UniProtKB/TrEMBL annotation:
Signal peptide: none annotated. This is Citrate synthase. GO terms for biological process: monocarboxylic acid metabolic process; tricarboxylic acid cycle. Keywords: Transferase, Tricarboxylic acid cycle. One of its GO terms (molecular function) is citrate synthase activity. The active site is at H277, D333. Pathway: Carbohydrate metabolism; tricarboxylic acid cycle; isocitrate from oxaloacetate: step 1/2. Gene3D superfamilies: 2.20.28.60, Citrate Synthase, domain 1, Cytochrome P450-Terp, domain 2. Belongs to the citrate synthase family. It comes from the Bacteria. The keyword Transmembrane helix does not apply. It comes from Sandaracinus amylolyticus. GO terms for cellular component: cytoplasm.
């Protein structure tokens, strides 16, 4: 929609759409969502099929390049990622400077941003080769930064990347390795983490993708734009809902208390966390995959006792007129926290895991935005509601 003016003095017609609920800020070929039908596709491929058949790095390749890789191309890409997992020692020292109880998401945002000072050439964003190198670096290094943040919080020495391991396996190793012997991640946990990264890899124009595109549209280097996207994700309305689900399940306490809790939600005393979505007015397709995944993980490493409360909550809510009428279904956050908790991950790491998975989506969208000739620096208009002109009054006369 372009501004329509009848003459130079006419303010014209403008769309007023706070929170962009009905405004497309860009066109994109990356991710398709049909919220009414509960459909999510990356580059045309249904999320269920990618979660079932593709590794996370295959999905990263797909998002970045538009097509699935042949075996050789995937091997080359995976090798490239492995070659860039290390971060400069000064980044480790920078992290040492944070308070012992610093939130890992705050540390991640700061160190992603600090990477721009280690790679000043990253600002040459018009150079395709250079752009690609920076994207590979960010995808490779973000698990390293995340694991460093986790270990800093616990006063543990960092574990350097082990390039013999898979993307998810290497991350688990950097997080949990405690002895000199080679750490072996549980295959079910490693696979679940890989799938969780895939499920979070992109979700079109959400708050953080919008931040990545908006900040990136100023042509700043991609590390600075990525730090902005991570900051947007840090907010409790975006990346923090799965943590709220765990708090809620603890508060409910037992299966028998679920009906009482549902009634309190219906009275407006709180929300059913992990339910409802701005776009999905049907079952979030990612939640379906995660529910299945949770069973696999619990079979392998033991059940999270909160799952029984969650399943009962879902069963009752899906039969209740209040939730049916408002089209409130479980979203991606409803079961993911239960898996992370069973894996031994603390709650403050949940948004960090989201950020690792979402990084390729942010980067693919950033590059798409740069190559889109229709895109300029993001600059929305406003509806001014302040004073008309008035005269300045000197301070002694006010
Ligand atoms: N529990 C109870 N009622 C709800 C819930 C919920 N989780 N979500 C929405 N509603 C009700 C609202 O009270 C409202 O009812 P009303 O029409 O009687 O006033 C109606 O459903 C519509 O709600 P809105 O807030 O207008 O819906 P919106 O699309 O703006 O909100 C949101 C979407 C923020 C996700 C909301 O459903 C919510 O707060 N859910 C809980 C938090 C959550 O799980 N967030 C994670 C989202 S997924 C992600 O970001 C990765």
């Amino acid at each position: 929609l372009r501004q329509i003016k009848t003459d130079a003095n006419d303010f014209g017609m403008m769309s007023y759409d706070p929170a962009f609920t009905n405004t497309a800020s860009c066109s994109s070929k990356i991710t398709f969502i049909d919220g009414d039908a509960g459909i999510l596709r990356y580059r045309g491929y249904p999320i269920e099929q990618l979660a079932e058949g593709a590794s996370f790095l295959e999905v990263v390749y797909l998002l970045m390049n538009g097509e699935l890789p042949q075996k050789k191309a995937l091997d080359t890409f995976a090798h490239e990622i492995v070659m860039h997992t290390m971060v400069h020692e000064n980044i480790r020292e920078l992290m040492d400077g944070f308070r012992y109880d610093a939130h890992p998401m705050g540390m991640l945002i700061s160190t992603v941003s600090a990477l721009s000072t280690f790679y000043p050439e990253a600002k040459k964003i018009e150079d395709a080769e250079n752009r690609r190198l920076q994207m590979v670096r960010m995808i490779a290094k973000i698990p390293t930064l995340a694991a460093y943040a986790y270990r800093h919080r616990r006063g543990l020495p960092v574990v350097y990347p082990d390039n013999d391991l898979s993307y998810a396996g290497n991350f688990l190793n950097m997080m949990f390795k405690m002895t000199e012997t080679k750490y072996k991640p549980n295959p079910a946990v490693e696979n679940a983490l890989d799938v969780l990264f895939t499920l979070h890899a992109d979700h079109e124009q959400n708050c953080s993708a919008n931040a990545m595109r908006g900040v990136g549209s100023s042509k700043v280097d991609p590390y600075s734009a990525l730090a902005a996207a991570c900051a947007a994700l840090y907010g409790p309305l975006h990346g923090g809902a799965n943590e709220e689900v765990i708090h809620m399940l603890h508060k409910i306490g037992s299966k028998s208390k679920v009906p009482e809790f549902i009634e309190s939600v219906k009275k407006g005393e709180g929300r059913l966390m992990g339910f409802g979505h701005r776009v999905y007015k049907n079952y979030d397709p990612r939640a379906k995959v995660i529910k299945r995944l949770a069973d696999e993980v619990f079979d392998a490493i033991g059940k999270n006792p909160l799952i029984d409360i969650a399943v009962e909550l879902e069963r009752i809510a899906l039969e209740d007129e209040y939730f049916v009428k408002r089209k409130l279904y479980p979203n991606v956050d409803f079961y993911s926290g239960l898996i992370y908790q069973a894996m031994g991950l603390p709650m403050d790491m949940y948004p960090v895991l989201f950020a690792i998975g979402r990084t390729p989506g942010w980067l693919a969208q950033w590059e798409e935005m740069l190559l889109d000739s229709e895109q300029k620096i993001a600059r929305p208009r406003q509806v001014y509601l302040g004073y008309d002109q008035r005269d300045f009054v000197a301070i002694d006369k006010r």
